[in-house]
Predict the structure.
Amino acid sequence: MPSPVRLFALAALLVSASALVPPGHQGLPNQPITSDDAPTTDTDSIAQTAGQVNQKSSAPVDAPPNADVPPTNVTAVDGTLTNATVADVASGSSRRRAVSPNVGRFSKRQGGYEQVFAGLAPGVHDASIEGTAYLTYTVVNNATYNVQACLDFCDSVDGCVYVNLFYEFNNFLLDFVFSEKSNLKCAAYGDIHGAAEKTNFGGQPSYPQPVPLTFITQSSGWAAKSLVDPTDPEGYDLVFGPTGGANNAPGYMGFAFIDKYDVDACAQLCNGRGYDPVGGVCQYFNIWRAVVNGVPTTYTCSMYYLIADESTAVNFGQGPLVVTLSRGYARKNLVIDGGFEGFNACDDFCFAASDANWIGTSPTGGDFDATIFFFSTFAKDGNGSALLGAAFGDDTDAGTLTPAKPIATKNGANYVIQSFFISSFSGTALEANAHVDILWNGVVVGSTSGFVGSYTPTQSVNVKGTGSDVLSFHGGAAPAWTFIDDVGVFEL
Ligand SMILES: *[C@@H]1O[C@H](CO)[C@@H](O)[C@H](O)[C@H]1NC(C)=O
Ligand SMILES: *[C@@H]1O[C@H](CO)[C@@H](O)[C@H](O)[C@H]1NC(C)=O
Ligand SMILES: *[C@@H]1O[C@H](CO)[C@@H](O)[C@H](O)[C@H]1NC(C)=O
Ligand SMILES: *[C@@H]1O[C@H](CO)[C@@H](O)[C@H](O)[C@H]1NC(C)=O
């Protein structure tokens, strides 16, 4: 025999269940559906960190010429300085694409080069560039001051937009060890530097003791005449840019500094950023160059779980920091109308088993067990959402919701599915049994269970695309209803 306490609980459950007006009769949720205020860009932290980071370098005195261009590194994450590879930081990202010529970098070269500054007269001590985005160096034939050979070298280096050409005297390795037997150094950079950045005067020991120290003469700078947009990173579309404004936008997840203007690196950091407990995966990044006191200083990737655009790209800098070359990129969502905003059969309250983009089905004998609603009260944002569990509360069957067309994936590529679920309509007790599975080609790859008090992002395990894949949601058992909104499938 049940104890009095248990009887009381059962009675309370029955009363509350019978008093419930189900969603299909425009009942109201047990508690209002609210969205948290999304955090905006922390521009102070970015500016402060830009004041600390040092990404300047020149061609080393002791390394052989023609070294490979090192991969893009991360120099700060969320205000903490670091020196790590992008792959280390973006550990959630499953792949690093092979570098192909000019993909993702600062820009492509077009129309030759122009002199940024000339070297000092022969014999006068000069200085080489110490600047950001150093790539590699070579030595060119020093029978003449061989500008053309240096520009040709830049053409051959992925991401090179600028070279610094100079003689380095008293370098033992150049004079006696390296096979080229030339002291005319050509240093390649992925960004353009001015004469103010000629700060490496040599003075380093290279010859055996007692030493004449190294010194530099005739240091000139040459830049690509025009720069064009980098190729969009895989899985992203350009939203705006280049402009002089960085985003100050909601849904901010944090930032990283990288050592080159490399949109592929930012995309990889966004993919590997992890999940915000309120907003879910990174869906947008803003890359820009910080110029401090006129000198390129670092390259920022700011990451967001909400897609921003040029209307919020209004941070032009602060103090000595100026924002340049700002571009926004949005992560492609392969789900058509993942927010159910395409359903607008009315302008207040209505629902249907399916529309042009989504199909809801009920098992035999079931009635509206998977539905699409137009009703802003149920939606995470906008007017549309979907419901699993009988809309009229007249059966306890689980429904199935699926996009009208299969997802157009790339065969063999990796994806993650994200959906926002809320299971709170009928209160904690009745929603305790709520359950919805996420299925990919019929296999369960994620789920939500039990009472969920606010729209919460839920991610699947990583899934593989086959080129045409069936996504579906299965579950709900009225009065343990679950609403769904903002469904996404994103490439990793
Ligand atoms: C990063 O670390 C490497 C190896 O430890 C070092 O050679 C390089 O100078 C460091 N870079 C920065 C920017 O600190
Ligand atoms: C990039 O970071 C790695 C790991 O810390 C380090 O070994 C490497 O030298 C760094 N590269 C540069 C160019 O600083
Ligand atoms: C050319 O480079 C070699 C090797 O560093 C050096 O010995 C020679 O003096 C240089 N010639 C000129 C004209 O600077
Ligand atoms: C929601 O519906 C109302 C009324 O039809 C409409 O004015 C509004 O623009 C809709 N909101 C969105 C985000 O579509």
Remarks:
- Residues 83 surround 2-acetamido-2-deoxy-beta-D-glucopyranose (ligand 1) (CB under 6 Å).
- Residues 113 and 274 are 41 Å apart (CA to CA).
